[in-house]
Design a protein that fits this description.
It contains no helices and 11 strands. With 114 residues, the protein is mostly beta strands. Strands 2, 4, 5, 6, 9, 10 and 11 form a 7-stranded mixed sheet that branches. Strands 1-3-8-7 form a 4-stranded antiparallel sheet, with no helix packed on it. Strand 5 and strand 6 form a beta hairpin. The protein is globular and about 40 Å long. It starts with a strand and ends with a strand. The relative contact order is 0.32.
Length: 114
């Protein structure tokens, strides 16, 4: 079992920055892959960025060059978001796959005003 808790969302103007954090607890020694998803109103949840414990990253094309994902060896997950755009507005979820099951946090709202 794994529990995930996000923080760091908020309201920011276009062009601004935010840093999201996710703290994992429980069976964290078994986690080798974590990431961030987001879901905007009326849209499907989509992968934003992910990272393995070996440091391999993957980003959605829409955020490449603007967002940076990082993870500590104690499974603290971060998402640095720069040059934010109104289309980045969504609820952002922390994600960790473990033993064929997906674990999710409750989400944190990010709102970017134009």
């Amino acid at each position: 079992q794994v529990q995930l808790a996000e923080s760091g969302g908020g309201l920011v103007r276009a062009g601004g920055s935010l840093r999201l954090s996710c703290i994992a607890s429980g069976d964290i020694v078994s986690i080798f892959h974590m990431g961030w998803y987001r879901q905007a109103p009326g849209k499907q949840r989509e992968l934003v960025a992910s990272i393995t414990d070996g440091g391999i990253t993957n980003y959605a094309d829409s955020v490449k060059g603007r967002f940076t994902v990082s993870m500590t060896n104690t499974k603290f997950l971060y998402l640095q978001m720069n040059s934010l755009k109104p289309e980045d507005t969504a609820v952002y979820y922390c994600w960790a796959p473990l033993r064929l099951r997906d674990y999710w946090g409750r989400g944190t709202q990010v709102t970017v005003s134009s």
